[in-house]
Amino acid sequence: MLTRLDPGLVEKADTAVAPRAVIIGAGLGGLASAMRLGARGYRVVVLDRLDGPGGRGSAIWEGGHRFDLGPTIVTVPQTFRELWAACGRDFDAEVDLRALDPFYEIRWPDGSTFTARQGDAAMRAEVARLSPADLPGYDKFLKDSERRYWFGFEDLGRRSMHRLPDLLKVLPKFAWLRADRSVHAHAARRVKDPRLRMALSFHPLFIGGDPFRVTSMYALVSHLEKEFGVHYAMGGVAAIADAMVKVIKDQGGQVIQNAEVDEILLDRDRGRDRARGVRLTTNEILTADVVVSNADAGHTYDRLLRNHRKRRWTPAKLKRSRWSMGLFVWYFGTRGTRGMWPEAGHHTILNGPRYSGLVRDIFRKGRLAGDMSLYLHRPTVTDPSAAPEGDDTFYVLSPVPHLGHDDPVDWAAQAEPYRAKVQAVLEDQILPGLGDHLSASRVFTPETFRDRYLSPMGSGFSIEPRILQSAWFRPHNVSEEAEGLYLVGAGTHPGAGLPGVISSAEVLDTLVPDPVLASSKAP
Fold this sequence. Notes:
Strand content: 15-25%
Helix content: 25-40%
Number of helices: 17
Structural class: alpha/beta
Distance between the termini: 29 Å
Strand order of the largest sheet: 7-6-15-16-17-14-18
Oligomer: single chain
Shape: globular
Number of strands: 19
């Protein structure tokens, strides 16, 4: 992996050789795109401003602890297997993926719990234990989830939705599946217990959506978990990113870290703007036949195309868009705790006293509430390499407002007091005596997401996946603003989450022209 730009790359694309694809960002969507285009014969160059690959799925080390910065759960592993197969390789030979059982445990303040497990019998037993009367409704919910999976994931999620007629054709199916109803509203029609309603509807929070507002299409996650399980990659998601880089290098491509793109360059070609390359913050110019942006869609249009007039994704339209919530993440290590706190498994969700009220504060009021719900990740339960021997590595995540509200949170003043509140909740509910064992510690706030990942509003997952910000309504994989420019990652179709960003590269693969044709169109 290169850490600086090779001067030999700074040249006009040579149409006598394979055409060049420049990919902005080494997040998993960008790396997956590089793999697919490399397999098709493009000369691929990936440019990334961070010091290691993976984007939000990268990792940092501190005091012998590996902190996996972003996603921790791998669902729908066949998306990775299909990606590797498209490159003539075997994913399972290169990445050690472990199935988890249980998937995660949900805990409520009253002491009740719900453990998501592998297998129908285990899950139905959990539902029956928590709320026996809701078992028939739960079975109906799973059938609803499967229908939405086949339509929303296998159909719409794996093909481009950039043409309006494609949207019009599927509107009747959207209506039949009641896509206008929220995930929570749909769960509430099937089960009565408020705890079970939460357990069946919280998943949109993992991709930045308000469960009381996003479309019920996202109920498909329950089928994903049931059908494919929940997995963990040994070495964290960063290990997947490293394996992707190896594939790209073996194809002859390059992944260059510490190289930040400042602008996408356009030429006027037959009456339309066409991407012809990028300019880095160092003023170096790299020409290309195809430009793929894995940067946030908002950053792509507002910053990287700032010197060009936009037809659809204008600054005003981006400002009107609804953005996903922000994230407060505390990464911490503990000394001598391996074997302690047996109730803290690999994944635990600690609910606060409110569900709808807290979500309303985060998404609509933009207020940092006094209570909180937390997601606790303890990878050392499965992967001891994440910490020194005998120690543990954790991260705890709290959804918080993004920075675009009228009175944004002053994180310079609030970060440490809020971290102390998070610690108090953990000590009270699941990690007693935590303060006596703390070692390494690092905090990410929405300001970190804004500065590290160039995420508009400091949002955790780009544009919120509401029904009118999904499919055709989302920034398209093939740019509306310039020919030869494509988008992948969380801010485009089909959306955030590991399956979403990997699928965005699959969609891209159907849109980018054959390399010979691309070369013939080179400026």
